[in-house]
Amino acid sequence: MERIGGIIGAAWIAACLAAGAIPARAAEPIRIGGIFSVTGPASFLGEPERNTAKMLEEDLNAAGGLLGRKIEVIVYDDEYDATKAVTAVDRLIKRDRVVAVVGPSGTGSTLAIVPKIEEAKIPLISCAAGRKIVEPVRPWVFKVAASDILAVKKIFNDLKRRGLAKVAILTASDAYGAGGREDIKELAPRMGISLVADEVYGPKDTDMTAQLTRIKGTDAQAIVVWGTNPGPAVIARNRGQLKIATPLYMSSGVASKKFIELAGPENAEGILLPAGRLIVEAQLPATHPQKSLLSKYIREYEPRFKQPVSTFGGHAWDAMMILGQAIRDARSAEPAAIRDALEKVRGFYGTGGEFNFSPEDHSGLSEEAFAMVRITKGDWELLR
Predict the structure, then answer these.
(1) Is the pLDDT of residue 8 over 90?
(2) How confident is residue 9, by pLDDT bands cut at 50, 70 and 90?
(3) Same fold yes or no, 6-146+285-367 and 148-275
């Protein structure tokens, strides 16, 4: 079976073994916490994240561990519920005594656990995209999902290339949707985009025909939806039922085959979105700096879990690998040393792009992390 993907992955394992100095004997494992939405409405986010984190735990330990010690990834399922995320992080900190936490899957859950993380002074690498997670910079909080505002900029640049300037937005009322709405409203006037409708839906709503009907009555040249499943899939189905031909853009929060399945290929056809390059790996040139690591991750993950890779599993890959890089660079599994090393990670290629952290930037990605993708015949098409 293929082991951890990519040039950096192979180098990381080799360096970990070298840096560890001696093989693990009876040393305590390095315990890493994971909080993912494995079940519940956002299981399409959390299940591949959990799978990937546990896969990397097995891969690394099979290669000899980290710093001469085994790692133990302790995962709790928050069910996409912020209260359960807080309970989980309490257990990880107080009972399991982890040195760092990867996750949660969602922006709301991440923001809910930040006070606990800051009080305990252990590093957190979130898998969520909300800009508020890392702005303003918090010393112990990092993230690997590219910020929403970068995705908004990618969409707006695509609109401008197509000569479309009048936009209707339809955003979820949860933390992720609200953050996207703020970013859209902030960037629109600066980029020459006019918002002709501003509609909101509840993340548990099962019908958005009322909002779409109002949008249909405007002169919108494009519709931008911001949310995670199942809401965006419902919107795609309702749009089809209403025979709305206006171009539809989705956020990167639907970059999973689950969205196409829930919406139905006929309703998803032609939808545009910014996404990481993992889901279009086969369409990348061999010379692309992410190609090798993406290919290896896919070859290990898909046969093992009998499901296609998604952007979200990639977030866990990036968080785990960057955390391992920081532990190796620090030559320590002490939380403070890991935190300091995380701020110095530069030129690290993961599934999400090239990461360059600094004391002023705990996200580390630029707009180049995103490619524009179109759904064509039930699959992803990379737009050149």
Answers:
(1) no
(2) low
(3) yes
* Contact assessment for residue 75 and residue 54, using Cβ atoms and an 8 Å cutoff: yes
pLDDT at 26: 52
Q: Are 297 and 314 in contact (CB under 8 A)?
A: yes
Q: How many CB atoms lie within 10 A of CB 218?
A: 14
154: nearest Cα among 27, 283, 332, 273: 273
pLDDT, tens digit, 9 for 90 and up, residues 347-376: 999 999 999 999 999 999 999 999 999 999
Q: Domain boundaries in the chain? A: 6-146+285-367, 148-275
| Residue whose C-alpha is closest to residue 233's, from 270, 258, 199, 215 | 258
**6-146+285-367: CATH topology:** Rossmann fold (3.40.50)
Can you tell me the distance from the alpha carbon of 341 to that of 37, in angstroms, rounded to the nearest whole number? 28
Helix axes 291-305, 43-62, angle to 10 degrees: 100
With cut-offs at 50, 70 and 90, classify the pLDDT of residue 4: very low
Mean pLDDT of the chain: 93
Residue with tokens 């996750």: 103
Q: Per residue in 217-243, pLDDT tens?
A: 999 999 999 999 899 999 999 999 999
CA distance 276 to 116: 30
Class of residue 23 by CB neighbours under 10 A (exposed 0-12, middle 13-18, buried 19+): exposed
Q: Which fold does the domain 148-275 belong to in CATH?
A: Rossmann fold (3.40.50)
